[in-house]
TrEMBL record:
Lineage: Bacteria, Bacillati, Bacillota, Bacilli, Lactobacillales
Annotated binding of S-adenosyl-L-methionine, by residue: 312, 341, 362, 410
Gene: rlmD
Species of provenance: Levilactobacillus suantsaii
Protein name: 23S rRNA (Uracil(1939)-C(5))-methyltransferase RlmD
Active site, renumbered: 437, 437 (nucleophile)
InterPro entries in UniProt: MeTrfase_TrmA_AS, NA-bd_OB-fold, SAM-dependent_MTases_sf, TRAM_dom, U5_MeTrfase_fam
Superkingdom to which the source organism belongs: Bacteria
GO molecular function, one term: rRNA (uridine-C5-)-methyltransferase activity
Amino acid sequence: MKNYQPHQNRRRNDRHRADHRNTPQVEVTEGQRFPLTIKRMGINGEGIGYYKRMAVFVPGALTGEEAVVEVTSVAHRYLRAKVHRIRKASPHRVTPRDSYADTVGGFELEHLAYPQQLQFKRDIVIQSLERYQPRGFKDYDVRPTLGMDHPYEYRNKAQFQVRQTADGTVQAGLYAERSHDLVDLPTCSVQMPVTMTVMRAVVQMLQDLEVPIYDEDHNSGIVKTLVVRAAANTDDVQLTVITNSQKLPHKHQLLLRIADELPQVTSVMQNINPGKTSLIWGDETRHLAGETTITEKLGGLAFKLSARAFLQLNPAQTEVLYDQAKNALDLQPGQTLVDAYSGVGTIGLTLADTAAEVRGMDVIPEAVADAEANAQANGITNAHYSVGTAEDLLPQWAVAGFRPDAIVVDPPRTGLADTLMDTILAVHPKKLVYISCNPSTLAKDLVTLTEDYRVDYIQSVDMMPQTARCEAVVKLSRR
Ligand code: SAH
């Protein structure tokens, strides 16, 4: 809550706006407490109740619960509050495995039993459809969310900030929500165990060797962030040390200790990200020890990953997700496919054996280079990747005469550009599969796409258990 801008300050900044926007509809002040019944859950996993008809968002509260809540911020149309005391708990409430689950982001649903988490994710898809109302939405086949048998220990990457306390203790973890206060995470139930083993061992080494740790207030010190990424299907592990400068004092001893005590680490890299910035990664990555990449196996293919290359965070569910994409595309021999927003080419390459030709694109040159290298390494000659935006390249390809039978899109949370949707409607492939990590932008985009396409079904896949994040595969067919 620390960096939260109180309502009074906002009002001062927004003086040019109509004043009523900043005045609550009802008389209520920060710190005020009242009883509240939670009616439903919002897209960020928070409980929602109503106080004198004002919506109140309460992180950590569950549908059906009765609680006394304390107002933490006041806006014109809604309030934010925290749970003061729960009077009647939901039968689905469980004790979070992580003691800090209500402090840092990424554990929004850890207090909710897993079957209900899966229901929540399907409900979020339905809520989004009801909000945007794409054509025929009431009849969509919205399938139950596919979850994990063991919804913990799945994350292949730990990316922790590193800080040093006044007494010299080195800590590594995540920021408390809306702040830059580091919460040290000695354990983390959703991380693959090897990522935590390596993380905590390296933290201890930094402390023992007195490697200077970054100090945000003074923009001094060296080590800012540690990133540990593990490949679930090969046991490769990469450590990247992100530093404030080219220097890494005691590098030699650090590398010796890593080689000695952490034989599971197959690659050590340094990324340089000088100065105060909200970005975690800098532009320059250097090789320190071992291999320069790690290899992950998915769908029978091997993918080499450089330190910055994007890969889905949950390897087990990635196979489930890609299987769903494959089923939905139902490619027939001889058909052509566009893998839009391709990352390192994982989706297109796993489908290349049935397709006559696969073309993909991504805006990150390194990812495209990795995709090309991955095609080659797997002996795939009918898949090609280009650098550029989907909205630029798809029209260019269409003009040059390439009209794919099928398109799979896997955009970031912002969804599809309008110009891309226009092109899709113009190119008019028989099959279209939309993989979405944001039900709101998905529902919004479906309003346009359903002008010409029918939604056959929506299959959500739980890629991020214990969080409110929801991923869905939508099969669309030409009307
Ligand atoms: N399909 C991949 C990656 C999905 S993440 C996988 O399953 O791993 C989304 C990707 O879209 C990112 O790699 C990002 O770099 C890329 N991207 C973002 N905006 C884009 C755009 N306008 N056109 C093409 N790719 C884009």
